[in-house]
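Researcher: Let's continue the batch. This sequence belongs to TolC family protein, and it's 449 residues. Same format as the previous ones, please.
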Amino acid sequence: MKHKLTVLLLILAMGIVSAQQKKWTLQECVTYAMDNNLSIEQFELDFENAAIDKSDALGSFLPNLNASSSFNSNTGFSINPTNNLPTTSTANNINAGFSSNITLFDGLRNVHRFNRAKLNAIASQYRLDDLKDDIRLNVANAYLSVLSNKESLKVFKAQYAVTEQDLKRTEELVASGVVPRGDLLEIEATAAGQEQQIVNGINAVLISKINLAQLLQITDYENFDIADEEFDVPPSDILNNSAKVIYDKALTFRNDIKFSESNVALAEKDLKISKGALLPTLTGFFNYGTRYSDVTQLLDENNTPFTPNFTDQLWIFDGISYGAQLSIPIFNGFSTRNDIKRSKINVLQSKIQLEQTKLELETNINQAYVDVKNFSKSYEAAQKTLEARRLAYEYSKERFDVGLMNAFDFSQAQARVDNAEAEVIRTKYDYIFRLKILEFYFGMPISID
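Model: Same format as before. Here are the structure tokens for TolC family protein:
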């Protein structure tokens, strides 16, 4: 038994360690965010409400059915319900029945409400999908930020390792009297600065991971980490399309555009519903009722009074009524006219919002298009600068090793390499993210594999 318990505990511990060592890929982060984001859960509940509203609208076409019953007991003077004569005896009465009503015509408002409910369900889906689009972009940006900070940290550590070697070599040169002690102090200052860079880099990685974890609704920040991968700039032919072509395609599938278009359609349905209040309303009704009273007196064949039993009275006194009722609106304090005016204003506002959404989309696409071009050039320029800085550093190192360059100038050459490497990392991930944004506007899924 103890052996089995030990094995179980070992398996559990291995599972915990495995979970803590999990490295999240971008796709896993996006999928997890879709399944666990609180805003998405809230919007999904709104979508369920829209489905219920659709069921309500469908129910307005159906007749209602209500049953009723009552019991009362009268002592003293009262009217006998069976013969409408006064009586002073105690009477126990039971009434029962059911009624049904159906709207035959209400200015087509029930039809428009049903169509509106269907549109609202579609609009809720577009709004939910638009939120998911935004979360995908936010997760991708946060993920790339972690990657960028991790890669920068690797560079800082590699630079510090090189400086440590230079520091040891300089100590030997100082000890042998080849270079002055001031050069050693300069190298030590450079090493101290790089140590600070490493500390800042570690903090940047931690903060960026926390930001990503918060987007995923994960609170175990200490054990959260992403996959240790290095990503090169992915190949893309998105710039083969003009910004206008990308915009025209985006109009056909973007959820924010579809949502705004749905709001226009909803406002137009609201206007039709408001106008329907000007028309007459025709309703049909059907009622069935019966009753029982213990003071009922009827005459038999011999004209002898008798009181029918409970079941017989229910059949004797039952009856039905049916008919239709027409209501014609004449004046209601301007409320209907004002509702129509408000609905017209809402239609105009929703159309303006649609045009504003299109304008924002066009602006964002043009900006993303320009950003991709600019960051592509910036990345290429940063690579060329880094290559030149490295060559200059190698030349400076050769001069420093033979005593032809002082430590200050050598540290400046190394600092320029450090800055160039940091700029390459920054421009690379800026370029990747802008590229993915532009591809996203073109309908391509977010992926950096």
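Researcher: Any comment?
Model: Strands lie at 64-74, 78-79, 86-87, 91-105, 281-293, 298-299, 305-306, 319-327.
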